[in-house]
Design a protein that fits this description.
The protein is an all-alpha fold. The protein is 59% helix and 0% strand.
Length: 69
């Protein structure tokens, strides 16, 4: 009985979520895909994964090596 109640509550939550999602505005992928592509291409010059990080501003650059003799 308790499991049936939990399942019923989960189904109610799922229905409520689907009601919210059906109200959200939709756009065709042909339009949004082009917008995303244009944005990514416009921002490519500022992307550190594509351009790299200057050595003097790289916080992960090794400071030096430690030598034990």
């Amino acid at each position: 009985m308790a499991q049936d109640l939990r399942e019923k509550e989960l189904l109610k939550m799922e229905v409520e979520q689907l009601k919210k999602e059906v109200k959200s505005p939709r756009a065709p992928i042909s339009k949004t895909g082009k917008e995303i592509k244009d944005y990514v291409e416009a921002q490519a010059g500022n992307d550190p994964l594509l351009k790299g990080i200057p050595e003097d501003k790289n916080p992960f650059k090794e400071k030096g090596t430690c030598g034990i003799s």
